[in-house]
Amino acid sequence: MQFSKHHLVYLCRVVLIAVSTTLLFSTSITAAANHKWAPKQLNPMRSPTSQLTSTKNLLSSIHQLNDNKSDTDDSDFSPHYLTKKSHSKQTIQGLINHAPDMNPTMPIRSLSQRDYRTKENLLDTSYNVFHFSPKSMFKSHTAIIDVPSKTLKPIAKIAINKWNFALKTKVFKLGNHQTATLPIKFAQAASNNWDGLYNGQKILINERHFTDPKYPTAYLKPALASQMTIKRYWTGVMAHELGHTLGLDHTAYQADLMYAPTSNGNLITKYLWEKPVQRSSTGLDGTETARISQRDLDRAKLTQLLGYW
Ligand SMILES: [Zn+2]
């Protein structure tokens, strides 16, 4: 079956954690944190082994998709190409090995345009990035966003500004229904286990959760809830979903905006995880603080170089 890059759905959810004495005193921070941001499980019943198998199948599909890109393809002749030489796969693998895990620092972001084209698979699997959005979404590196809801709009504006400020470019702009390439809308979720969703075409926000004035803080451990605000949380959800539109899949670093507590549901991943590789200093997820980390930012710069936005 042909794998379609643009029919991907990200469900980013918060599971309600009942605040009870039992939970407060018996649940570790780990367990509580891990319940908050599980993304959609494409097949909830699968074991880690079958997850690995399906990830491998997915990667082989991706590789098939990209097999027609050869190292000798010079069709995209550009000034970048003229000034920078391309490297062997081994050389680039060496650069990746020397760079911090999941963080494409300057050496990885200084390759030739031809390298980004011909080593795309290697970079995708090394940095959990993928061409999620259709080319029509980003015209001249900008997506035009329509937010029909008056209550969602102020939150969307903050999330948009966060990415624009971090990337130092207007990657997201507010437009209207006619001009928009990326709608952000409320959805009446059939299932209650997600807050934000990106389906490759639009971002949906779970209206039932959004309109619950106590969500999510009243359902979290007080020690965590006291450090966050509801507005900042929803800004984080929106910014996280915008990150998916840029081609960013989840990471295992808790402070990242694109963090998820497990790799279940990732469409592409360097490795599987069931707990954070590194915890945040506050115990809050990056989404809950709505902060774009250096890793998030470097990955988004890489996806621009890869032509994903
Ligand atoms: Zn997500």
Walk me through this protein's architecture.
By secondary structure, the chain is α/β, with parallel strands linked by helices. The protein has a domain at 10-51 and 132-305: Collagenase (Catalytic Domain) (3-Layer(aba) Sandwich). It contains 13 helices and six strands. The protein has a six-stranded mixed beta sheet with strand order 1-5-6-4-2-3. Helix 8 (153-167) packs across helix 11 (230-245). The chain is globular, with a radius of gyration of 19 Å. The two termini are 26 Å apart. Residues 1-7 and 14-82 have low confidence and may be disordered. It binds zinc ion. Zinc ion is lined by residues 10, 12, 39, 240, 244, 250, 260. Zinc ion binds at residues 10, 12, 39, 240, 244, 250, 260.
For the structure shown, list the relevant keywords.
single chain, 309 residues, alpha/beta, Collagenase (Catalytic Domain), 6-stranded mixed β-sheet, 13 helices, 6 strands, 7% strand, globular, disordered N terminus, binds zinc ion
